[in-house]
Amino acid sequence: xxxxxxxxVAGLSHSYGDLRVLDGIDLTVREGELVALIGPSGCxxxxxxxxxxxxxxxETGSVLLGGRVPEGCLNPLTYVFxxxxxxxxxxxxxxxxxxxxxxALSRDERRAMVDDxxxxxxxxxxxxALPRQLSGGMRQRVGIARALVVRPAVLLMDEPLSALDAxxxxxxxxxxxxxxxxxxxxxxxVTHNLAEAxxxxxxxxxxxxxxGRIRDVVPVAIPQAERTRPxxxxxxxxxxxxxxxxxxxxxxxxxxxxxxx
Length: 261
Prior knowledge:
Elements (H helix, E strand, L loop, with lengths): L5 E11 L2 E11 L4 E5 L6 H8 L7 E7 L10 E4 L11 H6 L9 H14 L15 H13 L5 E5 L7 H18 L2 E5 L3 H7 L2 E5 L6 E6 L13 H28 L1
Parallel strand pairs: 3-7, 3-8, 5-6, 6-7
Antiparallel strand pairs: 1-2, 1-4, 8-9
């Protein structure tokens, strides 16, 4: 059962001063769908995510949420960041509980919610550990638990695995797939990694180089639970080639633009 809201971006453009970053973005993320955003460096992926989450106000255009907020949802929109953003003096439990402290919940209610999400993310045995005692993958798992404890309807993820080594990234990706299949909130996932996008997303939105425009939207028809099976590898390889063909030339140009800037 989907627990997400529909997220619609309409006519969205944004600039930083004279620098045009996004231009004419129209996109609908359906309830319970996970959409990945990919594109060359500097194409506005993180800016688009920030506008979706209300951190930035767009120069033009709108972001709308549609549908009914699920029962028990405390924050309709929530983030998972690239840099973990954990408070070093708080335990795992304390970091996850932080986002509940401004809600009208009793101490017992907060503890029950935190215990539940720690159990779902495999962190209950580490509840009293400090961030410095955890591996990078475990710290990011805490960030994911903190995002899920408010029972969001839309989860916005800004390259959440990019700071991890390859082995840890693979392990956490499998955990993300399992969580996603259970939770079924709506999600937007920013990444530079085509393999991540193909492993996780229902659809992949390809942005052009700056100013970012939607070049293509590529559906991934294989169910997430079946994408590691040998029979799926040929289709995934073909999709990977298609995505790389869409971004390769522009990525080379964008790289020079970023360096020149």
